[in-house]
Please model this.
Amino acid sequence: MTLPDGLRHDVQTLWDYHDMRHELRPADVGIGLGSHDLGVATCAAELFHAGMFPRVVFTGANAPTTVERFPRGEAVHYREHALALGVPDDAILVEPEARNTGDNITLTRKLLESRGLEVGSVVLISRPYQQRRAYATCKKLWPEVDVICASRPLPLNDYVESIGDVDRVINMLVGDTQRITVYAERGFAVRQGIPGSVAEAYDRLVRAGFRRRLLPQDW
Model:
């Protein structure tokens, strides 16, 4: 399962843009953002075992892209996977209601506050191409917290192979790139610059037909 040669450069350009390249350091809590990618829970477990945080919150209900794979909810399945990887049950909190990234942040914050846990720093664990959007959303909704983004450190080709669906990965990359601008315009996230090379790669992939995850223009 490999990227077509004619698309590789543009896809790699978007992939590199969404990687925040944050240097990992210990934080108060890890937050695993629900999605179709179980690798998020794998990364959370690895970082927990590396001593990067003493507890992890898995957050996520379901979306149309995840309900078949995770019928009991993204966060519930993530928790089960982390338990299988040796994370202690008492180190895991589950937030099972979030249906978007904004919910992930606000509902996780409420959960932590309800437990009396003071949080000054978080590691946001997501799919690799969700890092930038997750960061921008967190800085808008929880501006006082120190945010570090993390994902499984896979090269693009290896990530595509792990997902097993080239079209899905490209469509998700294109959709997340659009959301960087649209969500900032609507007040859901802080604004971030988009280099010309990224904008051009995005436009070419949209023209090539990768529109499945685009928001409608009148949204």
Q: What stands out?
A: The longest helix spans residues 166-185.
